[in-house]
Amino acid sequence: MTAPTHPAEPRTRARRRRDTEHRLAHDVDVWVASAAPEGTPYLVPLSFSWDGTALWVATPAESPTGRNLAATGAARLALGPTRDVTVIDGGVEVFELDALPREHGDRFAARAGFDPRGLAGPYRWFRITPRRILAWREVNELRGRELMRDGRWLD
Fold first, then answer.
1. Which segments of the chain have a pLDDT < 50?
2. Considering its fold, how many domains does the chain have in total?
3. Distance CA 139, CA 89 (A)
4. What per-residue confidence (pLDDT) applies to 20?
5. Among 48, 92, 112, 115, which residue has the least CB neighbours within 10 Å?
6. Domain for residue 48, yes or no?
7. Are the CB atoms for 77 and 90 separated by under 8 Å?
8. Is residue 132 part of a domain?
9. How far apart, in whole angstroms, are the C-alpha atoms of residue 141 and residue 8?
10. Domain holding 133: CATH number?
């Protein structure tokens, strides 16, 4: 049995923001939690692209996630492992696949490794704009974990 390790010093809010922005720019997949209007939860991993202000995901329009996001206009996302997590609460906008510029779809396809525009069945784009972002690694980072509130980065 190994001895327990002690967490490193907590990161500053500025460092957590930089780490979060790096993760948004470089990670490929995100856990997407949604709920049906009557409350049934659904959790699924999806590939995403980050445009600097919002995350873009694509999923079949009639999948549980597609229906939930369109119906409620809200999602909770999680990036990273449980000991270095970023949780994002965001508002959702729905777009048909042909509603976005080709460059956007090309950027998503290059990043995600698949292109929803070429798949059978009706897919949609979902733009998730962060309203609240939390980030922490260990218990010593629980205090100060809120990085964004009401869509604005905190100082």
1. none
2. 1
3. 21
4. 97
5. 115
6. yes
7. yes
8. yes
9. 10
10. 2.30.110.10
First to last CA, the chain: 41
Residue 116 DSSP label: G
Can you give the pLDDT at residue 1?
52
21 assigned to some structural domain? no
Q: What are phi and psi of 74, to 5 degrees?
A: -145, 150
Determine the pLDDT at residue 5: 59
Residues in the chain, total: 155
Show Cβ contacts of residue 26 under 8 Å, excluding neighbours closer than 6 positions. Answer: none
Look at residue 2 in the predicted model and tell me its pLDDT: 53
- Residue-range definition of the domain harbouring residue 36: 27-147
Three-state SS for 49-79 is: EECCCCEEEEEECCCHHHHHHHHHCEEEEEE
Q: What is the pLDDT of residue 121?
A: 79
Q: Which two tokens stand for residue 137?
A: 């690694």
Nearest to 22 by CA among 14, 33, 31: 14
d(CA 147, CA 135): 7
CB 72 within 8 A of CB 89: no
pLDDT digits (tens, 9 = 90+) for 17-51: 999 999 999 999 999 999 999 999 999 999 999 99
Q: Say if CB 87 and CB 81 are below 8 A apart.
A: no
